[in-house]
Design brief:
It contains seven helices and two strands, in the order ααααβααβα. By secondary structure, it is an all-alpha fold. The longest helix has 31 residues.
Length: 200
């Protein structure tokens, strides 16, 4: 029977869609830095665990390939566009240079995602360069320090985004987090959310 809609509709991608939805809400309706950072953290958690959720389902080759592609496209929004929106709205202070840095950051994200799509994906045990998902940890961490200690007066947000852009495409091995490390990140994210909620 002919399908009415294009696409693969499978529960293995629901967590990816949830993370993307949270990011889109943050882009269009983020009402404060703390609120936006909470949504970015939650999107990062969705991406951290979506692979484990997807692998718990039995999938055919099309469903697996679709999962890889939809995850990459969602990452572009969640850890590319959304962080740039946060930067431009809350941290950017250098006019045209801030815009240029935003472009460089986005190009780094696009380059990394496209490269691994074209080359067959990441290795099983390690990343080459920094995975774009880590933006959902470092940016909220910086944002917390900004909200509580005004760290941007000492270390400008431009430095953080420049470093992230560099390491996204830097050709070096980085060990993937174990399950224990992921649980640790989950607990740390919960702490971050509690601290951010106090600033709403």
């Amino acid at each position: 029977m002919k399908k009415i809609f294009l696409g693969v509709y499978h529960p293995s991608v629901l967590l990816t869609y949830l993370g993307l939805s949270l990011s889109l809400y943050g882009i269009f309706f983020g009402k404060s830095l703390a609120f936006s950072l909470i949504l970015l953290l939650l999107a990062g958690l969705c991406d951290t665990f979506d692979g484990m959720v997807a692998n718990s389902f039995e999938r055919n080759n099309l469903e697996k390939a679709f999962g890889v592609q939809i995850d990459s496209l969602a990452d572009m929004v969640s850890f590319g566009v959304f962080p740039v929106q946060i930067y431009l709205q809350y941290f950017a202070k250098l006019g045209i240079f801030s815009f240029a840095l935003s472009v460089v950051y986005l190009l780094s994200v696009v380059t990394r995602l496209a490269y691994f799509n074209a080359s067959g994906g990441e290795k099983r045990d390690y990343f080459i360069g920094l995975a774009v998902t880590y933006a959902s940890f470092f940016i909220p961490c910086y944002g917390l320090l900004s909200l509580y200690f005004s760290i941007e007066k000492i270390l400008p947000g431009e430095l953080l985004y420049a470093l992230l852009a560099f390491f996204f495409v830097f050709n070096c091995k980085m060990k993937k987090p174990s399950l224990k490390a992921r649980i640790g990140l989950l607990l740390l994210a919960v702490l971050f959310v509690i601290l951010l909620v106090r600033k709403l």
